[in-house]
Amino acid sequence: MTDTTAGSARLSALMQRGNDFLGSRFAVLGGAMSWVSERHLVAAISEAGGFGVIACGAMTPELLDAEIAATKARTGTPFGVNLITMHPQLTELIAVCARHGVGHVVLAGGLPPKGSLEAIKQGGAKVICFAPTLALAKKLIRSGVDALVIEGMEAGGHIGPVSTSVLAQEMLPEIATVLPVFVAGGIGRGEAIAGYLEMGAAGVQLGTRFVCATESIAHANFKKAFIRASARDAVASVQIDPRLPVIPVRALKNSASELFAAKQREVAQSLDESRVAMTEAQLQIEHYWAGALRRAVIDGDVEHGSVMAGQSVGMVTKEEPVADILATLMDEAAAALTRRAA
Ligand SMILES: Cc1cc2nc3c(=O)[nH]c(=O)nc-3n(C[C@H](O)[C@H](O)[C@H](O)COP(=O)(O)O)c2cc1C
Is Flavoprotein tagged as a keyword (predicted)? Predict the structure, then answer.
């Protein structure tokens, strides 16, 4: 067996900044996944040395309150909360996080609304935002964010148009010295983690790789679909008509994704024939996926629900405890750094 002591020391050194920022042993964020990232998975990730993040999604303030309390009951290690910026009760959700003394709030789903950054900071938490472009990253830095996530289109869930490798090359040299930057999207092995750390990232964020953790409450069918799938099965949803905007989501292809194209054609035809107004047509498209992730994750309907998954799904081959997933990733990263130093 190769002696990876040198690589492990280098890995610890490269992760130090991210660890100090998160208060974790490994600078690995468990990316918040609606319905999946609840008390069990979040606590397990933090307990195993990573940094778990609760996905608030569409939860009410009361539900978030209960979820944070239940997560705290399972772990004394730090974890974060992911809030979606367009949630109608964002202010109340921020207040819930403050009441619980949550140390890190991740804001997802677009630029933070006015006053939200300040409110989070006043509550004593650090703010982490997603930066889709360099210009927006600089704007967010000026507004006082504490850290950024850059996420490429290989990721599962809602995605932007640019790949992780390009975002990392474009953005890390410009911003990684200013504040901690976490790289997300398409990371399935430790070699990639080592690479992004060497490029200046403070750490990484992984979602897909944690879905099949033993501690994840995702339905057995959801996990089975992940284990069977290869990278090319995780496809981005396509917009058919320029009048009907679709925010791309990467998920495993199934009946629902095929029917979505048909639905768009049907609505577009209704528009052409003036049978529906534009706002109604756009709402019909927006509502198509409502409840679809829950249907797949919780009910196990992986044909008619949305099986959000990133391209790294091909590297998910079995159900295993979070601690084993993290140990494998860290071993691979240390081995890669050992080889590079040789
Ligand atoms: C099933 C699923 C649900 C997700 N839900 C959310 C969410 O609610 N909020 C969010 O900010 N990101 C969400 N994401 C993105 C993850 O937090 C993470 O950034 C992404 O999975 C990283 O890329 P990877 O899947 O290639 O590891 C989701 C991803 C998946 C696979």
Answer: yes
